[in-house]
Amino acid sequence: MTRPSRMEIEVRRMLETRPAPIPAGLSLRAAARGARLLRRRRVVRGSGWLLLVALVLVFTVWMAVAQPWDMPPAKTTPPVDDW
Amino acid sequence: MSERRSALADRRAREFEAFVTGAAGRLLHAATLLTAETPDANPRAQRLLTAALAQTYVEWDRLRGEDPYNRTRQELATRFARVSWRRQRTDGGVLAQLTPQERLVVVLRLYEQVAEEQTAALMGLPVERVRTVCRRSVAALCATRRSRPSGGPLRTAGGGPAQGSSEPGP
Questions:
Q1: Is B164 a member of any domain?
Q2: Percent of chain B scored above 90 by pLDDT?
Q3: What confidence score (pLDDT) does residue A19 get?
Q4: A17 vs B contacts (CB less than 8 Å)
Q5: In this structure, is residue B161 part of a structural domain?
Q6: Residue B7 sits in a domain of what CATH number?
Q7: According to the model, what pLDDT value does residue A29 have?
Q8: What domain range is B39 assigned to?
Q9: Per-window interface: A 41-60 vs B, CB < 8 A
Q10: How close is the nearest chain A Cα to the Cα of B1, in Å?
Q11: Exposed, middle or buried, A5 (CB in 10 Å: 0-12/13-18/19+)?
Q12: Is residue B163 included in any domain, yes or no?
């Protein structure tokens, strides 16, 4: 960390001007906006989970019904019966 | 479940309000310096700060010991960097003669006294660049101040950084 130069100190003093008055209800407005963002985020996350659960459910039902791991009966070779 | 959530929300609201009461003055000053507005007419600074504070509110339960002031300042800086590139016009203020990037460097480095490395990381610039911009802006501000010691409305003709950036005297 280098020592601040004389000009830097001068600029620092320039920046410490009269502070702006705090607008009334700033905290409430920010909190309300934050709460809205939180709510929206919660809704998005909730619907995401719902979608995921629905997809898993549909997939499971489809697996149970279609049983895609079963080999389909061979169609290319005719069954040999008479040896 | 909803009872717990509302208790949590109550606590969050209380803590958040206490934080804003303590920090708003300094943060609003920083925002007003950034937007180069005057302390009495700073709608853009107020909007910037409200948005940054709202983001801090969202993250309040997940701060995990991180300083909310630092978090808000970071949000303020990134938000300002995101929206300011298309706005060059300024309405006065101490830093009106600087570009938005120079203002951000000056406010972070000299007003908020954020370390050079952190400023560079926050702005996505190399440390060298931050140092250069800071030195150039300081020289420009001092030069303007010397040529206009009354401290009236600062407005350079070109709007660019001052040419004479040599250190004065021994």
A1: no
A2: 55
A3: 82
A4: 29, 39, 94
A5: no
A6: 1.20.140.160
A7: 94
A8: 2-147
A9: 41
A10: 14
A11: middle
A12: no
Residues of chain A with C-beta less than 8 angstroms from the C-beta of B53: 26-27, 30, 34
User: Does residue B167 form part of some domain?
Assistant: no
d(CA A61, CA A63) in angstroms, rounded, equals 5
**Structural domains counted in chain B:** 1
> Can you tell me the distance from the alpha carbon of B68 to that of B90, in angstroms, rounded to the nearest whole number?
29
Q: Would the pLDDT of A9 be above 70?
A: yes
Q: What is the mean pLDDT of residues B23-48?
A: 92
Contact at 8 Å (CB) between A30 and B57?
yes
The answer to whether the CB atoms of B39 and A34 lie below 8 A apart is no
- Sign for the CA dihedral angle at A11, B95, B36, A30 comes to negative
Distances (CA, A) of B152 to B45, B49, B60: 21, 27, 41
A17-59 confidence digits (pLDDT tens): 888 889 989 999 999 999 999 999 999 999 999 999 999 999 9
Average predicted confidence (pLDDT) for chain B:
84
Is residue A29 less than 8 Å (CB to CB) from chain B?
Answer: yes
Residue B128: pLDDT above 90? yes
Q: Identify the closest residue of chain B to A18 by CA–CA distance.
A: B39
- In chain A, the residue whose alpha carbon lies closest to the alpha carbon of B52 is A30
